[in-house]
Known about the structure:
By secondary structure, this protein is α+β, with helices and mostly antiparallel strands. The protein is built from 8 helices and 6 strands. Helix 1 runs parallel beside helix 5.
Amino acid sequence: MRLVAAIIAALAVLPAPALAQAYQCSVPRQIAPVRPLTPDGPVRRTAIAGYTLSASWSPDYCKTSGDTRSMQCNRASGRFGFILHGLWPEAVRGPSPQWCGAQTVPSPQVLRENLCMTPSPGLLEHEWAKHGSCMVASPQKYFRVSAILWRSIHWPDADRLSRRRDLTVGDLREEFVAANRGWPREAVGVQISRTGWLREVQLCYGKDFRPALCGARQFGPADSAPLKIWRGL
Length: 233
């Protein structure tokens, strides 16, 4: 419970924003069982120095992936703007902790409870096994921690921004800090494709769960970089 208490204490000093973004969400009555995961890299159990909360811009994923059947993209179960990709622990230096030995598979009920935040059972399981297992002892606690942070953020209206002429990465950062007082722009990372399309926003936290300076990898391109946003509405 100390991790949850630390987050609540950190958020208490920030203004309370609106809830995170989902245009529409209806959880299916049944979800397919998740399959066993094969780690995509080595086990790394290293000290945690901070965290990254990564939010994907769902319309771009659905456009580029060709996915038309999943809850995230088929529009029968919802329409999504920003979704939680994951909460990731970061190392003091070097590669991040990962695959720390999750023995517990998230139950169908736990997955259902979080599908409007991350509308993919497979992604939820992956994020717990790869990242969450290095932070806490159970998927329930990992998703609770993730949800507390996720619901504390007021996401900018990226669909409205997509219509702005000569849009830049700095414009998106400016919209974010305007909607979330207490967040410095240096703590707001933006990831774009090689052709300038918005992929993710990556928010950087210290070990105390307060906004912190992003490293170069999370921060992404400079404010002056041109930005395009695929519309979700």
